[in-house]
Amino acid sequence: MQPVGAVVPLKVDIAEKTFRSARGVSITALQDLSFEVRQGEFACLLGPSGCGKTTTLRILLGLDKDFSGSFQLPQGGSNRIAAV
After folding, report:
1. If you placed Cys at 43, which of 11, 16, 37, 71 could pair as Cys (CB 3.0 to 4.6 Å)?
2. Quick one: residue 59, left, alpha or beta (phi over 0 = left, psi -120 to 50 = alpha)?
3. Which are the contacts of 84, defined by CB distance < 8 A and separation ≥ 6?
4. Interatomic CA distance for residues 57 and 50, integer angstroms
């Protein structure tokens, strides 16, 4: 049986993501987030409200480009990623 999924993994290395509050105070939403999802693996983001799950997904979906760090989407097929 052949393994499923992309041969090249999803690699995420987000050094920092900050927001400015209405009062101009810098709020750190993500800091030092690093993970890799390899071929055949299944991953999910779990955590309490406000811990950065949606912010991480917005970065991976390309909806938020204002962050320090990088990520690499799996190669092969489409370079698009979807969320429901």
Report:
1. 37
2. alpha
3. none
4. 13
